[in-house]
Amino acid sequence: MELRTLRYFVAVAEELHFGRAAVRLHMTQPPLSRAIKQLETEVGAPLFDRSSAGVTLTPAGAVLLDEARALLDQADRVRVRVAAAAGTATLTVGILGNGSDPGATRLARAYHRRHPRVEVRIRDADLTDPTCGLHAGVVDVALTRGPFEETGLTVYELRADPVGALLRADDPLARRDSLRLADLADRRWFRFPEGTDPDWQSYWNGGEPREGPVVRAVQECQQAVLWNGTVGMTLLDHAPVKGLTVVPLIDMPPSRVVVAWSAGDTNPLIRSFRQIAGAAYRD
After folding, report:
1. pLDDT of residue 265 exceeding 90
2. Reported confidence tier of residue 85, pLDDT bands at 50, 70, 90
3. How would DSSP label each residue in the chain?
4. Comparing 106 with 240, which gets the higher pLDDT?
5. N or C: less crowded end of the chain, CB within 10 Å?
């Protein structure tokens, strides 16, 4: 049994859909189906029940899923320990903003406990690059927010946070319990520079082209509102500076916290980062 084939099997077992598993593995479906058939021949038992209703695990498949996960985790640990012993284990993490989220703090602590000999290099990114250098190839994995252009990337959602309108405290709208985007339609907004990812720009502009001061960092967003009386969006639980307030926007989808990495990258340190991040952001 090859580790690669076991990874294929785990993907199908978790997705319970050959098409989705193929997309997840960045391959086409026919070779994936052949690999699973060959694995079933090797183990001497069917691993999946296939019917018009869908795909389900057989009892043999359920046992193999538990064992395969354990084997793959052990293989990853071996690769990481060997690399650490050779002094070559490093991981470059891009982080959007200041990284003060409690989930990020828990992640940092848990990752160090799991991989104490791995050197983690941090690259802070401003609001003009939501992929934190992934598209440029300068980081291994990004702890960031969506949405952004995901071509060539794998993106895993950790959490979704509500957003609100960032206003001066003396703004007439600041007295409202909640707002809609239409309430801000005739206002000047802070916005990101030309060339910023269009999906990212559109989200933080409420889906409309806006006019207003150009910003690149959270502090600049707040100062643009404070000094100019412009408006914009921010996370609902972010405490603004004195003189500003945040009012919930009830017709905006939440902002997604995500882990992203290059599609097809099999670095076990990235896979471990994703797993530990999932647990850290659930706490």
Report:
1. no
2. low
3. --HHHHHHHHHHHHHT-HHHHHHHHTS-HHHHHHHHHHHHHHHTS--EEEETTEEEE-HHHHHHHHHHHHHHHHHHHHHHHHHHHTT--EEEEEEETT---HHHHHHHHHHHHH-TTSEEEEEEE-TT-TTTTTTTT--SEEEEES-S--TTEEEEEEEEE-EEEEEETTSGGGGSS-B-GGGGTTS-B-BPPTTS-HHHHHHHTTTS---S-B--SHHHHHHHHHHH--BEEEETTPPPPTTEEEEEBTTSPPEEEEEEEETT---HHHHHHHHHHHHHHH-
4. 106
5. C
